[in-house]
Amino acid sequence: xxxxxxxxxxxxxxxxxxxxxxxxxxxxGPDGWGRFSTGExxxxxxxTAAIKRMGKVEGLGEAGKSLKTPRFKAVAQLYIEQLxxxxxxxxxxxxxxxxxxxxxxxxxxxxxxxxxxxxxxxTMLEWEAWRLKENDGKKHSKSTVNAFNVVLRxxxxxxxxxxxxxxxxxxxxxNNGRKTEARDWFEGEEKKQLMTALQSYMNTGHTSKTKAMRxxxxxxxxxxxxxxxRPGAEIEGLQWQHVDLRAKSVSGKPYVKLTITKGKTKKVxxxxxRIDAKVFEEIxxxxxxxxKADYVFTLPDGERPHRWSDCFHDLLVIANLKFDNTGxxxxxxxxxxxxxxxxxxxxxxxxxxxxxMGTSIKMISDFYSKxxxxxxxxxxxxxxxxxxxxRMTVSTLDEWM
Length: 401
Hints:
Structural class: alpha+beta
């Protein structure tokens, strides 16, 4: 065998490319062949480096680890594929959309090119400093950092199952986030600012599909503000058979009733939406998909969009509403918090709000929390729907909301 390609041990070859003076090595590890540079131009030194590496590889085999350690972004992609599989199996959760967004915006940009086995405590400290800088000097809340940690644990768990790392190589994931003092919601003037920006935003976009997505976002936001339903599965799972535009309260007052069949609680519940029925009629006219089994939030071409969080984030940046006045970062959940806060300010009973939102609040009565929304319509409808029908249009509805 020539000097340019030589076997120096079983499962270990030394070679040099014609266009490089540096010696390379091919080595057989526990999961197949791998290649690496010895970093040496002197052949004797290259042999020594290759043999040392061979010893490490044998150690990897004894420890049950893999030779081919990937970069973080490759393992993160496996996690994305894991989420895709859950979605196809019908096990999608609303939080999964946030995990994807956090991975794309706050985790992979920093860790992406780093080898998964080289991420340690020092790396985590560097990431924390990087996040602070990228987030305009504001610390993420504890709940957000907790979500970051959930994603990182899943990525490291995949790496461990693939034998790219051992359990003792997984860095400690601490939560040094900022304690949230109050929910991030849109106060009166801020909500008007949001709706004004949204009306402009829905008319922009480089493609017809982008414009259609932004138009649907307009209705997505309005329905969330009017009902307090959760973003994700609850609102996106609404089909036309779940929308009753002619519902009547116990006293006979008309209102819009939504039946929530998917989401966090996995319980079917009826929701009072403080919104004019004409809004849903506009959606039906825009999408053209109005069969009972059709989803309310469907693009005119029949596709169901999923990247609502990203679209809403872009809107918040344009509207200069990314953070509330206490520094809390706003998300789609801020719309739900706004509904809740405004309802309580309007002196709607806590138990009534909890029942409509499908959530629990300390010390609320089990009796009130289990009542159907129909029996709570009188309390939840602060303004008479029959009066609204006479004077409200799409433009004036924004002011009322």
